[in-house]
Design brief:
This protein is an alpha/beta fold and 377 residues long. The protein contains 15 helices and ten strands. Helix 12 packs across helix 13 (287-298). The longest helix is centred in the last third of the chain and has 33 residues, at 331-363. The chain binds flavin mononucleotide. The site of flavin mononucleotide has 23 residues, from helix 15.
């Protein structure tokens, strides 16, 4: 299979994965208006190419949270990656390490904080969901600290789970429940089934497993998570977290400039502009459409990462021109992981690297710092 772009990885993932699982990864909430806007709004932004610039050497390296990274990209946190490939989060973290970019491990990841720390080096961050039980929440922060994670990401856009109608219709559960419909779906995807069958029972949420009262097996763990996810989180909780974590802190799921400014004033080192890849509030704006106003409000006092809809290097170049420091990928990484584990994730990262280089060269841009509003029409 020749992969010419991330969309080719998506197509391959679609044919490889059972529909129920592909839809869980790929789908959005409700009418998927936000999911579509995430792509459509990138496609409505055009470059302002400059010519006769010597682009014999184009440098993609840049600084994020004070660390040098090889290109302006991070792997966004995604829960339950092991349902697409047995190699799971460790594979994604290794691919990120190899590429010289940060990897963010989710609270609901398949692999635990400790397992990923032991299995991969590099720049590792941990994404935190707040539990109703604040001592449990504190426990995650302490585990991230003890295992040398470099930054903490507080996700704030999951006060309820989005209404993902494809999952409801498909009867999506982890591990897959055997109904006549799901049975046909799985046997219709024999490559996935052969690779995954021995592992299905072992799929877990590595960070939640073993917590008192969480139960056993991924169904019980998911139910525990849903019960524990705290819809009462407020500004006080951000202040609390800032008080107990002294390394870089980012807030993820921000779409409003005033919110972003207040977070920075409270000590956040980074803002992740995200609509959760179109999986939460349908009708939330695309991230690229709010980037400029948030960048103006933050005024260089914190780093800005944008995710949701990144499928091409050109998307990243456009986001950087509008004020982002780097971009994140969720689904693009999972398509690569599904089709080929760690090397699939590396394939996606390197595809984006080549495309960023290409778009920079053809717009007449030699280094990341030279991407400005002038890069766009
Ligand atoms: C299958 C899946 C699981 C996700 N799980 C989490 C999660 O556990 N925590 C979180 O903060 N974001 C989660 N996200 C959102 C991603 O971090 C990211 O914001 C989103 O995928 C970006 O959009 P993109 O998929 O278009 O790249 C998840 C996304 C997907 C697709």
């Amino acid at each position: 299979m020749i992969y010419t772009c991330v969309d080719d990885y998506r197509r391959a993932a679609k044919s490889y994965l059972p529909k129920t699982i592909f839809d869980f990864v790929d789908g959005g909430s409700e009418r998927e208006i936000t999911l579509r806007a995430n792509r459509g709004d990138f496609e409505n932004i055009f470059f302002n190419p400059r010519t006769l610039v010597d682009v014999g050497k184009v440098d993609l390296s840049t600084e994020l949270l004070g660390e040098q990274i090889s290109m302006p990209l991070i792997i966004a946190p995604t829960g339950l990656a092991a349902i697409v490939h047995t190699e799971g989060d460790v594979a994604a973290a290794r691919a990120a390490e190899q590429a010289g970019i940060p990897h963010v491990l989710s609270t609901t990841a398949s692999d635990s904080i400790e397992k990923v720390a032991a299995g991969a080096g590099g720049n590792k961050w941990f994404q935190l969901y707040f539990f109703r039980d604040r001592e449990l929440t504190r426990g995650f922060v302490e585990r991230a600290q003890a295992n040398d994670y470099q930054a903490l990401v507080m996700t704030v856009d999951l006060v309820r789970g989005g209404k993902r109608e494809k999952d409801i219709r498909n009867g999506f559960t982890v591990p897959p429940r055997i109904t006549p419909q799901n049975f046909l779906d799985m046997v219709g995807h024999p490559r996935w089934l052969l690779r995954m069958a021995p592992h299905l029972k072992k799929i877990t949420m590595g960070n939640v497993e073993g917590i008192d009262g969480a139960g056993e097996g991924v169904v019980a763990l998911s139910a525990f998570m849903n019960e524990q996810l705290d819809p009462t989180i407020s500004w006080d909780d951000l202040a609390w977290l800032r008080g107990i974590w002294d390394k870089p802190l980012l807030v993820k799921g921000v779409l409003n400039a005033e919110d972003a400014r207040r977070m920075v004033d409270m000590g956040a080192d980074g803002i992740i502009i995200s609509n959760h890849g179109g999986r939460q509030l349908d009708g939330a704006p695309s991230t690229i459409s709010v980037l400029r106003e948030i960048a103006d409000a933050v005024a260089g006092d914190a780093d800005i990462i944008l995710d949701s809809g990144i499928r091409r290097g050109a998307d990243i170049v456009k986001a950087l021109a509008l004020g982002a420091t780097a971009c994140g990928i969720g689904k693009s990484m999972l398509y690569g992981l599904a089709v080929d584990g760690q090397s699939g994730v590396s394939g996606v990262i390197e595809m984006l690297r080549r495309e960023i280089d290409l778009a920079m060269a053809m717009t007449g841009t030699r280094q990341i710092a030279d991407l400005t509003a002038d890069t766009l029409r």
